[in-house]
Prior knowledge:
The structure is a homotetramer.
Chain A: E1 2-7, H1 12-21, E2 27-33, H2 42-45, E3 57-58, E4 70-73, H3 79-89, E5 93-96, H4 106-113, H5 120-125, E6 127-128, H6 131-139, E7 143-145, H7 149-164, E8 172-179, H8 193-196, E9 201-202, H9 210-219, E10 228-235, E11 241-248, H10 255-266, E12 272-274, E13 292-297, E14 304-311, H11 315-329
Parallel strand pairs in A: 1-2, 1-4, 2-3, 4-5, 5-7, 6-7, 8-10, 12-13
Antiparallel strand pairs in A: 8-11, 9-10, 11-14, 13-14
Helix pairs in contact in A: 1-11, 6-11, 7-9
Amino acid sequence: MINIGIVGGTGYTGVELLRILATHPHAKITAITSRKEDGMAVAEMYPSLRGRIDIAFSSPDKAQLQDCDVVFFATPHGVAMAQTPELLKAGVKVIDLAADFRLKDVGQFEKWYGIPHTCPEILKEAVYGLPELNREEIKNANVIGNPGCYPTTMQLGFYPLLKAGIVDAGNLIADCKSGVSGAGRKAEIGILFSEASDSFKAYGVSGHRHTPETIAQLQRLTTDTVDVLFTPHLVPMIRGMHSTLYARLTKNFSNEELQALFEAAYKDEPFVDVLPFGSHPETRSTRASNMLRLALHRPNNGNTVVVLVVQDNLVKGASGQAVQCMNLMFGLEETTGLMHVPVLP
Amino acid sequence: MINIGIVGGTGYTGVELLRILATHPHAKITAITSRKEDGMAVAEMYPSLRGRIDIAFSSPDKAQLQDCDVVFFATPHGVAMAQTPELLKAGVKVIDLAADFRLKDVGQFEKWYGIPHTCPEILKEAVYGLPELNREEIKNANVIGNPGCYPTTMQLGFYPLLKAGIVDAGNLIADCKSGVSGAGRKAEIGILFSEASDSFKAYGVSGHRHTPETIAQLQRLTTDTVDVLFTPHLVPMIRGMHSTLYARLTKNFSNEELQALFEAAYKDEPFVDVLPFGSHPETRSTRASNMLRLALHRPNNGNTVVVLVVQDNLVKGASGQAVQCMNLMFGLEETTGLMHVPVLP
Amino acid sequence: MINIGIVGGTGYTGVELLRILATHPHAKITAITSRKEDGMAVAEMYPSLRGRIDIAFSSPDKAQLQDCDVVFFATPHGVAMAQTPELLKAGVKVIDLAADFRLKDVGQFEKWYGIPHTCPEILKEAVYGLPELNREEIKNANVIGNPGCYPTTMQLGFYPLLKAGIVDAGNLIADCKSGVSGAGRKAEIGILFSEASDSFKAYGVSGHRHTPETIAQLQRLTTDTVDVLFTPHLVPMIRGMHSTLYARLTKNFSNEELQALFEAAYKDEPFVDVLPFGSHPETRSTRASNMLRLALHRPNNGNTVVVLVVQDNLVKGASGQAVQCMNLMFGLEETTGLMHVPVLP
Amino acid sequence: MINIGIVGGTGYTGVELLRILATHPHAKITAITSRKEDGMAVAEMYPSLRGRIDIAFSSPDKAQLQDCDVVFFATPHGVAMAQTPELLKAGVKVIDLAADFRLKDVGQFEKWYGIPHTCPEILKEAVYGLPELNREEIKNANVIGNPGCYPTTMQLGFYPLLKAGIVDAGNLIADCKSGVSGAGRKAEIGILFSEASDSFKAYGVSGHRHTPETIAQLQRLTTDTVDVLFTPHLVPMIRGMHSTLYARLTKNFSNEELQALFEAAYKDEPFVDVLPFGSHPETRSTRASNMLRLALHRPNNGNTVVVLVVQDNLVKGASGQAVQCMNLMFGLEETTGLMHVPVLP
């Protein structure tokens, strides 16, 4: 069994980790920290876990995190980097679901997140946790920067096109839509039911933190200069993310060739599903599962390829992907504990 | 492996059966019928099942249902009773998710469902599939009438009170609320998104088919005459059912004694969870799982007991319960394939 | 023109007052207070009011409330009673949308609201603002305690039955369901979109503040002792309230007589609509309007009458009712500015 | 008073016309046709209209449409063109909310709508009913082709940019999102509550009927060749439309100049609201009103302008715009009966 610690188990990525790990055959959760809820049973806060998760939250000072095999940080940005050096010394692996280890460029990190990076030397060895593009590195990693939810869809959607060098890398557009759980479990007016339901809006259009992460990763795939115009929107649904990606073809490529390109790229991937050309994937077809599905379009047979990508932002976009990384890091079958069938309707 | 046939796999209880059986370790789905979708891959209609369910719908005449070990009917009322006699002769067990085998009284059936019952002799040996109240009979059954979703909550909520003989059996009130999926996957105006969302209403208040089923079953628990005033409502959510049950105490019973009564009644039940006295269970705490949760209240310390009961109407209220019955009928551990952790948020 | 001040214009009842008063032909909003948003244009917080409400929030000390003809308090409990004595001295009328002037019994107020009442002498002259039952008193009132949203539905639903003396007044049950906006615009976890959508729950079942208010008012209608078992629930919709009321008949009364009783009771009421017997009103049929609709049922022709009542909790259940009171207090036609057609779909 | 006939009053644009016209001071609804509902009171189908709309549906043959001053067609494509010739002969003006009179090019119409156009001669004199771009023609029109909902947002969002000639007209992208009411009130599986809620998807990505309409209208504004890549999506909300428009600048233009350009373009428009630069309009800020709001962005200060446009698809996107046209056609103040304050929350 893998002894697992979770820092910050009260948010949505935290409770989703608990849901997944509760039925993972090799996982043993030994510590969940929460300063505020010290002593409260996890199942008291989340009755959905009654009978399935028996431990209580403990304050960070009491939790024996150094005895774990791996610690997940489901915390705000900045928490993981404060505790990681000590954990690594104790031989504990770290998977951070926040942004502390996503951006290799410290200057970029500090610009977009507004806090100094406190362990740049660890940042150097940290591995970006997107298994489809980074599998071998993840297997040997001690520290994982788990990808942002939006960047996961943008990277897996643009990857085959950039790799093949057939689109204008400097003029990519990603019009993305997320369910409200992506904003976290925070007491904020803007994500109240009466504010966010039965309405739709964009946010962060002038600039969003997931842009530099996405560009940095996509740049690794091509020598052309990558630029992505990323526009996030808030959808009145709990889970689910839909990215509508636009890329201009620079080479002659038929629809059949495009489809073949994507199918070849992902044919061995257990969690990427390429739908038939011209399909319209729905976010609910991935709900509560680790699947990401995508489909290609060529509107009016013009020279723009549209890639539609859907995932559950809390699973493939966060906690499921983190467990997928854990499986790789501990030599388990990559799909272990992650084969939930999507919940539909 | 149990060879399984499903008649009517295109509705919500059908696709929910598929979701559950896809990860059931002893289930092998060998036939799914749909006259209209003959030849269409199941995963084409339900992309959530891509890579998980590989067979196609076949028309009823082509499906080799008589070679199955068990056939589930996820069909409108009346279909199961037409095909059950032949299946039984072929040694196939039948689990009907509709109402054909729920009411022992043929007259009642014909009054409420408006069609003649075509196999009253089978009705006699059919077993009502509520494991918590009927476990031993289910184990030996060849034909199961799977309970209605509302009746499941009403029976499990009122049962300990009636069994103990401490409430006025003739004056029970059940104010029940269901998610829209309970109405099925039918092209009807009233359950369109733009009709049913952001609104709330009651329906069938003057009389509903689940009343006679509930009364008949509850009557088995007591010699007092049972009467239930049942009021169903439609909630703008997909899954979930919440029943608010009112019963007047006829004996002196403290809150502690009431709580103890319920805890004793369900202490060995894997799918009934008695919450602490005074809790307010949310439907989402059971979402996509086979759990039913309930909690007791005594408003203003008066002589009315209020029981709050929640479940997922498609799982414990339908397909999960049917699989629970199947497990019992085939000598499997009752919880096999049914231990999904509720999806929250 | 009536010069109007609003204290606490940032909550949902506040912005709803603004929406209504923006097109009221005799209303002139001269002051809106908010300590926190002092100087911010109202339309900046609520872009829906751009071009319709031109003033800015001002801190309470700057607002010239004593120059108003009437001041609405759309504030938490306790604010109105602190400011009302001074306003009355200045000749300003007061309409409180919170509970400060709803309960005549100071002890009850202090028990349920947990704060001392600071102006019991004003409480004595305050008038309960339910026009259908209290019209004449409202016309001459200087201080209005605007009814709670739930109590409005319970009173108008039970009134004809109690008045006629044909039901068991001591055994009334009110199973009520409210949209989430009823919880106000507060940064609280429980009413986040990801917590409250796609789910359903009861709350406050063991005892709720609207019970004493409702009983006190209903008691004025009959010499029998009134008791109401009131169970509130939270519905995943923004606006709307549905109360399912149960009363046991103590006299022989046909369905036709019941219907006639209600039609007679409300035949001259512009905002109470009695639907045909056996109807199922939807909350959306009152959305964004001041209408309350109700319908009668007699399930299975038994001796329980079920009254289904719907309204928009923010209009007839709060701000619309407050403006209705204002119209009466200033000698205007009662329906002035309140004839919005419900928004459907 | 204007005597008004409505053909097809049972759909969402029909009931929205009724909601608006019920409080329009110069409107008198004299006939509403529905073959299927002949004789049924309008308020029986739509209880929200009880007491506000007193007439009943009548079958087309009984309705005296030729006695009306104007007839609205809230019908499927093809109905208006069948009846318009006769109405025009009788001196009745026609406003079609479907597509019969939107496309001047008969070939385009027949290609995209799959039916022959039966009155091309009337098509020639028909006027496209977008008042902001076509006001004078509308005043003198006898036949109006009311714009599609999506095209309204695309035209008003791109108009100032194309008029000024500062963007690449051949590479416009419109990523648009609509509430479910846009799909109409039809008994179809795909728009059931349990299918469309808590999920998000694109549709018609390979080609959609609103593309040729939009391009044809935008082409009138510039000599450059216009091309728009239009991608519609379905949002789990009832009303509301959000278009995210992308245009590449071909000239040096500061953000201040862009903002000034839009403010100048719409400074006298009662129903177009230009928000401050960098705002994120929400669809709910226009709910149930005839307002369209837009805001400009310049992501990462690059050379792409993003225009965010919101409206209520049933009002400015359909029935409200139609009434706006009617006001112009009959010499009334353009805003008559259309000054509803948006309903928020």
